[in-house]
Amino acid sequence: MPCDRLLATLTAELEELAARGTLKGKEQVITKVIPGHDEIGSRYRLAGEGDRLFMRMNANNYLGLSLRPEVTAAEDETAWAFGTGPGAVRFISGTYVQHVELEERLAAFHERQAGMIFSSAYATTLGVLVPLIDGETAVISDELNHNCIINAMRLARPQAKHIYRHNDLADLKSKLEAAAGAGSRRALVVSDGVFSMRGDFAPLKEIMRLARRYDERFPDNVLVVIDDSHGVGAFGTSGRGTEEHTRCRGDERPDLLIGTLGKALGVNGGYVVGPELILRYLRETAITYIYSNPITPAEAAAAIQALAILDSGEGKRLLAHLRAMTRRFERGLVELGYETIPGPHPVTPVMVRDTAKTIALVDHLFQNGILATGLKYPVVPRGDESIRFQISADHKAADIDLCLEALASFPGRPKAD
């Protein structure tokens, strides 16, 4: 049989993943979406589960915009007018008026000179970091940064990589000092804005102050890049993310800000905003931009509509409701005796701190019609096993209470004080 020896090797590797507890396994397939109403949020049917309805507590759709009629109508109308796909990469007749308008609107929303869209936020991070890191660059990265940042550093092969302890400003300072002392021509400090597994956020103002303090010691400056994919649209009074929440203004803001269209904005794709000259350079050098088709014109039109909703009174109402639901869930967890990491972001972890109990709790929630994501060892360090809940503006008070009732009925739950 062709590939028989390879198949045996791959089978062994899959078995090893299963033994380590990192095998993703079979995907749950959504077969139907039942839109919510005033009293309850949306429900979902899954393949193999008959007519059972499930509530998603593990989706990135923080504002519920993917189901908004205005957003779906914008995508539908544009698909009829322009087709279902761009048919080419950007520089070979693949740029449509919707792409240009979306980039301009994103730049204006974030008060930057220019914007640039990619096929995904992951592709954005690779496309931004790799061209800006060379053999004379020191990269300084938070230890809990997303996988896309880690892989970008591997691809870029910088002069030096420095990993600082999570949100530890003293350690960041020591890494900047080491890079300056080693004679690196350029320093690039990179961090998530919101850390997706925990819901905590980077102290951007203090990071920027440190970067500016060391800037003169590097001939090509200290460049700060923040991936705020989980922050934009879900964080801050007007949804402008971590830099709004931490009150970064003017020169206190990151040099380059990476965001996504696929979480709070409810569509698909990623983007970066920043100085026009840097983005013009990236259009010539970012391989994930040059060699990949962009998002479709219809997706771009949907994102424009979603951004318009976010940047309006309705957007502020959705954000206020999202914050209220997050507070309701956190209070309920504490009253039930569960350990969480409190904070204003809608990522709300429950720290279970035991792999077997995490698996059991995820299964218990599933049996009660709730989809949640368990993080087990060795995906997280032993003792940090948890369940990541993600609140959405699509959730109503009754939905939050339903999830809390399921958590209350878990036989292994901790005892409240």
3D structure, described in words:
By secondary structure, this protein is an alpha/beta fold. It is built from 15 helices and 14 strands. Helices cover 42% and strands 16% of the residues. The protein has a 7-stranded mixed sheet with strand order 4-10-9-8-7-5-6, sandwiched between helices. Strands 11-14-13 form a 3-stranded antiparallel sheet, with helices on one face. Helix 8 links the parallel strand 7 and strand 8. The model has no long low-confidence stretch (mean pLDDT 94). It folds into 2 domains: 148 residues, Aspartate Aminotransferase, domain 1 (Alpha-Beta Complex), CATH 3.90.1150.10; 242 residues, 3-Layer(aba) Sandwich (Aspartate Aminotransferase, domain 2).
Features:
417 residues; alpha/beta; Aspartate Aminotransferase, domain 2; 2 domains; seven-stranded mixed beta sheet
- CATH class bucket of the largest domain: Alpha Beta
Structural category: alpha/beta
In terms of DSSP E residues, the strand content is 15-25%
Global Rg: 22 Å
Question: What is the H-and-E element order?
Answer: HEEEHHHEHEHEHEHEHEEHHHHEHEEEH
**Morphology:** globular
Instruction: Sketch the major β-sheet.
Output: 7 strands, mixed
**What's the count of strands?**
14
Q: What is the CATH topology of the largest domain?
A: Aspartate Aminotransferase, domain 2
